[in-house]
Specification:
Blueprint: H1 2-16, E1 35-45, E2 51-53, H2 58-72, E3 78-79, E4 90-94, E5 105-109, E6 114-118, H3 121-134, E7 149-158, E8 164-170, H4 178-189, E9 195-199, E10 201-202, E11 205-206, H5 215-218, H6 235-247, E12 251-258, H7 263-268, H8 297-313, E13 318-322, H9 331-347, E14 351-355, E15 368-371, H10 379-386, E16 390-393, H11 396-399, H12 421-425, E17 441-448, H13 456-463, H14 466-475, H15 483-491, H16 493-500
Parallel strand pairs: 2-3, 2-4, 4-6, 8-9, 8-17, 9-12, 12-13, 13-14, 14-15, 15-16, 16-17
Antiparallel strand pairs: 1-7, 5-6, 5-7, 10-11
The chain binds ligand TNX.
Ligand TNX binds near residues 287, 355, 413 and 451.
Protein name: beta-N-acetylhexosaminidase
Family: Belongs to the glycosyl hydrolase 20 family.
GO cellular component, one term: membrane
């Protein structure tokens, strides 16, 4: 039977031969794989193709079929029987490989088969993103396209440089509904981003239903920058986002910013204010004017309730406690506050992340700092690093997705500088922060603050291409870093974004295909 299968495969390849191959070169995949080699064969996905994916591989197999069906119009049944592996042209397999880690994968393409193997389903998922980019850009269309659906033969062995590759969306300054968040999740997953940090509260809005403190959402979430209606996620909607992200191997990190950036909470409950008076809701864009009352017991009861409910809704290991720009909280109040909040997070079984401002306080060994400043040297960060603190890097002048590309960019801010395509790429996260070893860098994150961002098309325009560039810095080995070759690879993403309807900034620095 095996011989017959091989012959069938060969015959199919011979029939496909007259069609001029226009397969995508391996060198156009973003992020760059750790290792890749091309062969002189071409695989053609035919209308009768089946996907073999059994056991732990089944859900990624179903996902692969779902992303390939619209443009191909093929049925692409997913074969979950174990014996199916050898006969189906596309095979997803869990197979132990010591060098690949949790997210690595191996992809082997020849004239008759595409075989994807990984230690874990997460690795298969990342391999599927590579496979999608090896198909013509029209594979991303939502309606049937002519094809042919060819993939260049070859082999890729790939695994990430950093375990944390993130995006952040500020849903507090402007609120974005569940569908917008899901669309963004799908767009970032293509670049092997594995974390979405949701900035759920700020001066202008509280965006998650909290059952023990209901006015946070119903009143605190009732407006946004500019005075619009705002909004909030019910707990069921938040769970839906978390589950959708998980199906894309993305961990949601919820952030409740504190002790500053808390006007929406302070406006909702008078007792959280030191003077017992609730301020009005705020719809401007200033920072640094609000603070929880760090000396009141009720503040810690409030935080225990809020963090407890969020921890119960969040399967991921992290809760982000903000901690930035607490200009209305003295250091004497700030330090014990951060100590207490870290303990509350730990009591609910989670690991705290905070903006690097928290390194002024004593940090638990597990607490992670997120670096946002614009210079690589910071005394309290260095001191924390000496004690072993790990960091996620989001330098505002390199990684902030709300910074303008040029003075002409219609959206965004420029307080940290302008970030053109080349600037977003030309730095090394492993060797950026003074006094922080590469082994203490968990990875990178691109925060998108939304004072000026109001709709999905705005999110896309600020995120792409820069988030794809940051994802490359997070995933690809340092040895692949080269702007000249990278800009050509990045250029190959342009036609894909067009087909997907993603509104991107066509930087003149990139030779768009
Ligand atoms: C700074 S840096 C902030 C945000 C603003 C952003 C605008 C930091 C952690 N916080 O509150 O939205 O700048 O670019």
């Amino acid at each position: 039977a095996a011989a017959a299968i091989t012959m069938l495969g060969t015959a199919a390849a011979a029939q496909a031969a007259p069609v001029k191959p226009k397969a995508v070169p391996y060198a156009s995949v973003v992020p760059a794989p750790a290792w890749a080699t091309q062969a002189n064969s071409t695989f053609t996905l035919g209308s009768g193709a089946r996907i073999a994916a059994s056991g732990q591989a089944a859900s990624v197999g179903n996902y692969l079929a779902s992303v390939l069906r619209p443009a191909t119009g093929f049925a692409l049944p997913v074969d979950q029987a174990l014996w199916a592996r050898a006969v189906d042209p596309i095979q997803l397999q869990i197979a132990p490989n010591a060098t690949l880690g949790d997210e690595g994968y191996q992809l082997t393409v020849n004239a008759t088969s595409v075989v994807l193997t990984a230690n874990k389903p997460a690795g298969l998922f990342e391999g599927v993103q590579t496979l999608r980019q090896l198909l013509p850009a029209s594979i991303d269309a939502s309606t049937k396209q002519p094809g042919p659906w060819q993939i260049q033969g070859g082999k890729i062995t790939d695994h990430p440089r950093f375990g944390y590759r993130g995006a952040m969306l500020d849903v507090a300054r402007h609120f974005f509904g569940v569908d917008t968040v899901k669309t963004y999740i799908d767009e970032i997953a293509r670049y092997k981003v594995n974390t979405l940090h949701l900035h759920l509260s700020d001066d202008q809005g509280w965006r998650l239903q909290i059952n023990s403190w209901p006015k946070l959402a119903t009143y605190g979430g009732s407006t946004q920058v500019g005075g619009g209606a705002g909004g909030y996620y019910t707990q069921a909607q938040y769970k839906d986002i978390v589950a959708y992200a998980a199906s894309r191997y993305i961990t949601i990190i919820p952030e409740i910013d504190m002790p500053g950036h808390t006007n929406a909470a302070l406006a909702s409950y008078a007792e959280l204010n030191c003077n017992g008076v609730a301020p009005p809701l705020y719809t401007g864009t200033d920072v640094g004017f609000s603070s929880l009352c760090t000396s009141k017991d009720i503040t810690y009861k409030f935080l225990d309730d809020v963090i407890g409910e969020i921890a119960a809704l969040t399967p991921g290991p992290y809760i982000h406690i903000g901690g930035d720009e607490a200009q209305s909280t003295s250091d004497a109040d700030y330090k014990p506050f951060i100590a207490k909040v870290q303990q509350i997070v730990a009591n609910h079984g989670k690991t705290a992340i905070g903006w690097h401002d928290i390194s002024k306080a004593d940090l638990l060994p597990s607490t992670i700092g997120q670096y946002w400043d614009t210079t690589p040297t910071n005394a309290s960060v260095q001191a924390a690093a000496k004690k072993g603190t790990h960091f996620v890097l989001s330098p505002a002048n390199l990684a902030y997705l709300d910074m303008k590309y040029t003075e002409q960019t219609p959206l965004g801010q420029d307080w940290a500088g302008l970030i053109e395509a080349k600037d977003a790429y030309n730095w090394d996260p492993g060797n950026y922060l003074t006094g922080v070893k590469a082994s203490q860098v968990n990875g990178v994150e691109g925060p998108l603050w939304t004072e000026t961002i109001v709709k999905l098309a705005d999110i896309q325009y600020m995120a792409f291409p820069r988030l794809a560039e940051l994802a490359e810095l997070g995933w690809s080995q340092a040895s692949t870093h080269n702007w000249t070759t990278f800009k050509t690879r990045l250029a190959a993403q342009g036609p894909r974004w067009k087909v997907q309807g993603v509104n991107f900034y066509a930087s003149p620095q990139v030779p768009w295909a």
